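Deliverable D4.2, example record:
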Amino acid sequence: MINITNGLVLYGPEMEPIRANILIEDDLIVEISPHASGGCKIDAKGCIVSPSLINSHVHLGDSVVKDIGDGKSIEDIVKPPHGLKHRLLSEADNGDVVASMRSSLLEMMESGTTTLVDFREGGLEGISLIEEAGKGLPIKKIVLGRHDSFLEPFSFPSFSNDSHDPNSDFEDEIREATLKIIKSADGVGLSGFGEISDEVVQIITETCALKGKISAIHAAEYEEVQENSLNVTGKTEVERALETGFDLLIHVTSPLNSDLDLLKDKGVSVVCCPRSNGALSVGIPPIKEMWDKGINLLLGTDNLMFNSPNMFREMEYALKVTRGYYKDYFPPVEILKMATVNAGKALHMNTGCIEEGKQADIMVAEQLSRDPVLSLINRTEPKNIITMITDGIQIKNRLL
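Output generated by the structure prediction step:
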């Protein structure tokens, strides 16, 4: 057993600061109280005890092409299959890709992250690369893969005067490709509606749902894709994503019409990636409006091409750009919840929150100001993290 003593604990789903000890047995929190005793003690005097961080959207493979393409348009950089990043990744040596991914995983762990959601390009080979990169590292990887065949053809073929229905063969092909991916991954992560037809999407999301896997997609990342979607289909990307049954939408930086109301009504979570949106000059996510609507919001560092995977940097930027954009107060605890409590809820994980019965994924960091939440968001650096625990195992320990 482990006993974290004398710390200021951010307790429960509202992250209420309380003075308490935390007793951990195996991988679970079994008691939180000032009187919890027993176990191997970790003295957290002068420290904040918080859930460790969850990075809900990252493209880990792009670690091998950092800071390339600055100044180019988003389409030129990331649009598959011929965007700059896809060309460079196709040319990259697998050994270099694995080494760069492992370096990024270590950086995440050093900066308080113990769970990540990776959009994994490259089909089954891409999935095998992240498995290799993460060998022996105590970090939870939720891998959302994709198959190259999802991009081919752009829409269902149309045939006439034929007793055999070729669409049936096509559906079987997409379903089989999806099953191959989710056999090795936690679900499917799609680039966007600009590269794939709604019919293909529907097969993918239905197959994921049947197998209890996650389906996620980039949606409404910038105004042009929303306008194109309306012009071609009469619907926004958010409407199409909700109609086709996705579990998780990435970005929603440019909602239109009744998009936010629909998201609230459907109970679908959104992952915001404000630093990425800023780097690509596509806008500022409407975090306050979505929060006001009651939409469950998560946070991700997105593409390693332009951002470090440090969630403290993401949280600080998210808080300050949101306040600046709206010229209004936004509660810092809601930003921290995006990186902890809300993510655990959306991903159906028994983590992201410090309370009895939850998995012990915990970060102990020096308290650097009177406000424990702002201390974490504004001031915490990897050097200020005293210890981290994941699944009940201490993975980082530094003496005060």
